[in-house]
Amino acid sequence: MRAKKSLGQNFLQDAAVIERIVDALDLAPDDAVIEIGPGRGALTETLLTRADKVIAIEFDLDMIAFLRQRFGASGLELVEGDVLDIGLGELVSETAKLVGNLPYNISTPILQRLIECREAFSTIVLMFQREVVDRITATPGGRDRGFLSVLVEDAFVAERLFDVPPTAFQPAPKVWSSVVRLTPRTSRARNAKVFRGVVSASFAQKRKTILNNLKNVFPDAVATLHVANIDTGRRAETLTLDEWLRLSDQIKQ
Question: Measured between alpha carbons, how far is 25 from 12 in angstroms, rounded to an integer?
Answer without folding.
Answer: 17
